[in-house]
Design brief:
Layout (H helix, E strand, L loop, with lengths): L1 E5 L14 H12 L3 E4 L4 E6 L2 E6 L6 H12 L6 E7 L7 E5 L7 H10 L4 E6 L9 H5 L5 H17 L6 H4 L6
Parallel strand pairs: 1-4, 1-5, 5-7
Antiparallel strand pairs: 2-3, 3-4, 6-7
Helix pairs in contact: 1-5, 2-3
């Protein structure tokens, strides 16, 4: 069993925000893998297709680790079979990178997961860039993608769908600089 987690914030207000890139990816994967909703009891929405579980934590970004830990423990999933999809302001918009482990880089969703299960899980980082003024980071990540950015993301979501089937080779096989 593999657990694919998309980080984001629940609610219409956040639906197309840069910080919700993980939720957007999970929505795409749910459709692509024809996954069915199986539960809302793990502080999030959980979907299943074959050997894949797809999770959208409903705890808001800063507490995502609580939801991940509940699913991990219930299904007895090893960290090596957990993939977290998230936004990354340190990558240029449209960049896609894969890695395993490492620091949270200041990302509060990753910090929460690290606190709850450790940091030795796979990550799919999708670049959203950063504003010139560091004081504007929060407003920037909570702003919506434009149409061109959304079209770029759809290309990455296809790549992500292929990469989750072979995540251990993803860093060398699927990493893209930009759209």
């Amino acid at each position: 069993m593999k657990l694919i987690v998309g980080l984001g914030n629940p609610g219409e207000r956040y639906k197309l925000n840069r910080h919700n890139i993980g939720f957007l990816a999970i929505d795409y994967l749910i459709d692509k893998f024809n996954a069915s909703k199986i539960s809302s009891k793990f502080k999030g929405e959980l979907f299943k297709s074959g050997e894949y579980l797809f999770l959208k934590p409903a705890t808001f970004m800063n507490l995502s680790g609580e939801s991940v830990k509940l699913v991990k423990d219930f299904y007895k999933i090893d960290n090596d079979d957990i993939i977290v999809i998230h936004d990354d302001i340190d990558l240029k918009p449209g960049a896609l990178k894969f890695k395993k482990g490492g620091s949270s880089g200041g990302h509060n969703g990753l910090k929460s997961i690290d606190e709850n299960i450790g940091n030795d899980y796979h990550r799919i980082r999708i670049g959203v860039g950063r504003p010139e003024d560091k004081k504007e980071v929060i407003n920037y990540v909570l702003s919506d993608f434009n149409e061109a950015e959304l079209n770029c993301l759809k290309k990455h979501f296809d790549t992500i769908a292929k990469a989750i089937e072979d995540i251990k080779n993803a860093p060398s096989k699927y990493t893209k600089k930009q759209c």
